[in-house]
Amino acid sequence: PGTAGTLDVTDADTVTLTSPYGSASLPVRIADGLADGLVMVTLGTADAAAEALVPPDRGPVRVAVGVEARR
Could you tell me if 12 and 28 are in contact, meaning their C-beta atoms sit under 8 angstroms apart? Predict the structure, then answer.
């Protein structure tokens, strides 16, 4: 929630995540339990765009977050 507040995004806004491996535009879902500055993306879902963010070994990766659009 803290990071979402800093970025001024709410549930259902769209953000663009960019890593050294690619980028993906994904909807925001705010959840408690993550430390400030962290984002979590579920891989292996119907939205395969997130797969572009990770290295082949699927290890952790640093991403930049940009606000793309408002609801």
Answer: yes
| Residue 30, pLDDT above cutoff 60 | yes
Name the more confident of 42 and 29.
29
Strands of 1-71, DSSP E? 14-19, 22-27, 64-69
CB atoms within 10 A of CB 35: 7
- pLDDT value at residue 63: 85
Give the torsion through C-alpha atoms of 53, 17, 30, 34, to 10 deg: 60
pLDDT of 18 = 92
Closest-CA residue to 29 (of 45, 20, 55): 45
Listed residue (25, 57, 56) closest to 41, CA to CA: 25
| Secondary structure (3-state) at 35 | coil
